[in-house]
């Protein structure tokens, strides 16, 4: 059986990680999730959306008010900026898959708490196991520190290609942070240009 990203979490339980046949099946299995308190205050579960065969998965932090209202990721102000960032490197949101570390909005947009993240990560890992992209684009420190399991600063993670469990990883600023601090846009532009170049290199290698 193919090893899944979340086998580790099942290693002490005597159970094997559940396998899902498709993103639709995973969505149906997860949409009524009540594993954590965020399910009590959400309007909509925000699974994520985009190309199920995407080579790039974009991972944000958590749904905000607009995302909670619509059940779709990155559709508010941050989402409009994310669309522009993707466009600037020749992608639309239909080329990538966009999701978040946690699938339900934390009240008052507070940071997701450790136990909420832990419960929700199995859904994200299952998404990655199904999509099997080449590259993860992690937006902001919550996404990057969670996936890379560190407490590193943005400055020490951005600007280079990192590796995590066989995926190539690019870390950059969260669009909400760029809206608050436009001075960081230049660095973000450098990061996503690097992502595009890396993506083109992978595509060229795959066609050789
Ligand atoms: N911020 C995020 O991290 N994710 C969203 O979906 C929207 C805003």
UniProtKB/TrEMBL annotation:
**Domain Uracil-DNA glycosylase-like stretches:** 47-193
Which catalysed reactions does the entry list for this protein? Hydrolyzes single-stranded DNA or mismatched double-stranded DNA and polynucleotides, releasing free uracil
Q: What is its EC number?
A: 3.2.2.27
**Is Metal-binding found in the keyword set?**
yes
Which CDD domains does its entry note?
Answer: UDG-F4_TTUDGA_SPO1dp_like (cd10030)
Name the enzyme group at the top EC level: hydrolase
The yes or no answer to whether the keyword Membrane is present is no
Q: Identify the keywords attached in UniProt to this record, alphabetized.
A: 4Fe-4S, DNA damage, DNA repair, Hydrolase, Iron, Iron-sulfur, Metal-binding
> Which NCBIfam families does its entry note?
UDG_fam4
The UniProt similarity line reads: Belongs to the uracil-DNA glycosylase (UDG) superfamily. Type 4 (UDGa) family.
State the protein's name.
Answer: Type-4 uracil-DNA glycosylase
Species: Prosthecochloris ethylica
Taxonomy of origin reads: Bacteria, Pseudomonadati, Chlorobiota, Chlorobiia, Chlorobiales
């Amino acid at each position: 059986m193919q090893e899944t990203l979340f086998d580790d979490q099942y290693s002490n339980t005597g159970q094997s990680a559940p396998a899902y046949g498709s993103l639709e099946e995973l969505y149906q299995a997860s949409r009524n999730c009540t594993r954590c308190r965020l399910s009590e205050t959400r309007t909509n579960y925000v699974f994520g959306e985009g190309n199920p065969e995407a080579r790039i998965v974009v991972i944000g932090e958590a749904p905000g008010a607009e995302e909670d209202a619509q059940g779709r990721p990155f559709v508010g102000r941050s989402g409009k900026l994310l669309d522009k960032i993707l466009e600037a490197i020749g992608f639309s949101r239909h080329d990538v898959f966009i999701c978040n570390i946690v699938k339900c909005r934390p009240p008052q947009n507070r940071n997701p708490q450790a136990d909420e993240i832990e419960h929700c990560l199995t859904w994200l890992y299952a998404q990655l196991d199904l999509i099997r992209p080449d590259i993860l684009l992690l937006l902001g420190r919550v996404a990057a520190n969670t996936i890379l399991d560190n407490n590193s600063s943005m400055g020490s993670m951005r600007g280079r290609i990192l590796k995590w469990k066989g995926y190539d990883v690019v870390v950059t600023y969260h669009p909400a942070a760029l809206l608050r601090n436009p001075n960081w846009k230049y660095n973000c532009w450098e990061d996503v240009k690097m992502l595009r170049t890396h993506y083109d290199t992978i595509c060229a290698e795959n066609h050789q």
